[in-house]
Amino acid sequence: MNWEIIEHKVKNAIDLTEADAQWLLERRDARGLERLYGLADEVNNRLNGRVVSFVHNMNINYTNICEYHCTFCEFKKSPAAREAYILTFDDVKAKVDQAEGPLSEITFQGGLSPEVKFEEVLTLLKQMRAAYPAVHFHAFSPEEIDYYAEETGASYEEVIGRAKAVGMDSMCGTAAEILDDEVRKKICSEKVTSDEWCEIVRTGHGLGLPSTATILFGHLEQPKHVVHHFKRLRDLQRETGMITEFIPLLFMPDKTKLGRAIDPNMNRIEYAFRMLAVSRLYFMNDIRNIQTSWVKLGWDNALASLAVGANDMSGTLYSENITREAGGQNGEYMPREKFISDIERVGKIPVERDTVYSFQQEKSTECRKQKSEDRGQKTEVRRQRTENRSQRSNDREQKSAVK
User: Fold this and answer.
1) In angstroms, rounded to a whole number, what is the distance separating the alpha carbons of residues 161 and 157?
2) What 3-state DSSP class applies to 137?
């Protein structure tokens, strides 16, 4: 493997292999990282130009009670814990009504516990849909779908179908962690297997529900595990075409059991940038949107990552309990105005989107200017083509006259 092979593939939009991706993930030298980031930025510009998207959304975690014991999570609480909660519709409405202007998306997920029945969650979602009919409900991870299938004895298709019927518009691609069962057994042994996660997402896609796709990195995984994860997602996307974005999520170690087992000398931000860059290159022909997580990386690092392959800045969020409970200290809410001003400050064009990446509002005069310039360039190209056709016609007439 060498840089010439990688650069040839990237410049000609030839798929990278898993060996290519692993080799890139292992680059640590300054020159290698510079070349990696440059290629990722080149591909991003080819696909998205200077546009950077974000969404006006809110996270609703309907309960923090959970019976699982994932080693990377501090969000879960026992039913008897003082901090334990199960949200009612009035609780949810009070949160949503505090948003600044109408929300585009509500992400709706919760812990896994016999205290919370599927019927109760469906009722809550149905009430939310009735109260906020214009909002897109991005709901339930594959883990929740599996849990409720176990509780009810229903199939994955039946569970997803019932959720869709009362208001679910797309599926959360969380709980993926690492889609390699060697690692899953160590960090989340109670969760679905890699095959089951893919089966549930595939089932949702088959019912017309798009999904995101995530990876949790920065713990026990090695590059080989990451590329196994990448391959599963690319294969799934080529089968269904319904993954809207890829979201690398940096593990937050500070308060977790797993955090005590990781390398304290890991350069976590540099690793995050490598992950974003390699994912951009590996998915270049299949997943257009690579999201950076400002909650995980910090706002300034997330902005910097827009130069290494990321094209989406996530959303306003309003609350992000899972990261905060694990020790994250980067905040839970960012106003739309901050997205717009700071994305422009780093030379990009901010565009507000919805969950499926319809560009709802072009928030930047620069964006309108670029589109105007693009139209002008197209007009000029058409003018030149017309002139060329006219010239060729004249040439034919002159040749005919000579004959």
Assistant:
1) 6
2) strand
Phi, then psi, of 335 in degrees rounded to 5: -70, 155
377 assigned to some structural domain? no
Tell me whether residue 398 is in a domain.
no
Burial 166-202 (b: 16+ CB within 10 A, else e): bbbbbbbbbbbbbbbeebbeebbeebbebeebbbbbb
CB 271 within 8 A of CB 24: no
Residue 390 lies in a domain: no
Residue 402 class from Cβ within 10 Å (0-12 exposed, 13-18 middle, 19+ buried)? Answer: exposed
Rounded Cα gap, residues 45 and 73, in angstroms = 36
Rounded distance, CA 14 to CA 43, Å? 12
Domain containing 156 equals: 3-362
* Residues 145-173, mean pLDDT to the nearest whole number: 99
**What is the sign of the dihedral through the CA atoms of 117, 92, 102 and 76?**
negative
388 inside domain: no
104 within 8 A of 354, measured Cβ to Cβ: yes
**DSSP helix/strand/coil, 35:** helix
248 beta partners:
215
Q: Is the pLDDT of residue 308 over 80?
A: yes
Strand pairing partners for 216?
249
CATH of the domain at 26: 3.20.20.70
What are the residue ranges of helices labelled H in 49-117? 89-96
Q: Tally the domains of the chain.
A: 1
The residue behind tokens 């290519």 is: 20
What pTM, to 2 d.p., does this model score? 0.87
Question: What pLDDT, in 10s, does the model give residues 207-251?
Answer: 999 999 999 999 999 999 999 999 999 999 999 999 999 999 999
